[in-house]
Amino acid sequence: MYLVFTFFLGCSTKSFETKEALWIYLKDPDNGYLQKKNINGVDFSLAYKPTDLLVEQELGTHTELSSALKKEKIKTLREKYQKQLYFTLSMSKSGKEILSTTPKNRQEFGAMVNQLVFGMREKIHVFTPKKDTLTMLDYNYPRMYGMSQSTTMLFVYPRDTKYLKEETLHFKIQDLGMYTGEVKFKIRTEKIKKEPTIHF
User: Fold this and answer.
1) In sequence order, what DSSP letters do the residues of 143-199 get, joined into one string?
2) Sequence-distant (≥ 6) Cβ neighbours of residue 40 within 8 angstroms
3) Would you state the pLDDT for residue 61?
4) Residue 81, pLDDT above cutoff 50
5) Is residue 80 within 8 Å of 74, Cβ to Cβ?
6) C-alpha closest to that of 16 among 55, 45, 47
7) pLDDT tens digits along 132-145
């Protein structure tokens, strides 16, 4: 059984003993960090990825650190990753990657690969209710070559306090050639400002 602690950093924040416990919490749609939609047979899943998951991922490469050095490393990594917002977008059809199900021929396959690798800045947009658009800093598309059940990408945006003053942010996916039309998600900024942490 996982233990959950609550402490205060200006606002109530949940802290978990392990990354696995945190993932269980994040994957429950009732907690507001994961949203799902099915449009024309395509499953879309959008999740906010808290800072400490990135900290834990990088910290895993420093297993030799002493307790004091580990504490300092965690502080440094948190300062590094807290400057950005991270969202993971997963897309699948019939329980498979979209590259395995959507293209009808080699030409369409090549065009979709090119779009996923190089063209997502034109297809994904995050903006406020006032239509202020956040600049995409980076995105990552790992090729899984049919070995995964979904196409999952990581998108990175600046953590600008003026945007987080809005009640929501809007995440829009333009049609990627799957006849879904525009797919939109609404993200509550309160969830970002109170993002859960790992009790390292």
Assistant:
1) --TT-SSSEEEEEEEE--HHHHTSSEEEEEE---SSS---EEEEEEHHHHHT--EE-
2) 178, 179, 180
3) 73
4) yes
5) no
6) 55
7) 999 999 999 987 76
| pLDDT at residue number 64 | 78
Tokens of 5: 């602690």
Report CA 82 to chain centroid distance, whole Å.
14
pLDDT of residue 146: 63
DSSP 8-class letter at 33:
S
Instruction: Kindly report the number of other CB atoms within 10 A of residue 168's CB atom.
Output: 14
Question: What is the rounded distance in angstroms from the CA atom of residue 13 to the CA atom of residue 5?
Answer: 9
Helices (H), the chain: 19-26, 51-59, 67-81, 98-101, 106-118, 161-164, 189-193
Which residue's entry shows tokens 């939109």? 184
Among 53-62, 105-114, 170-179, the least confident range = 53-62
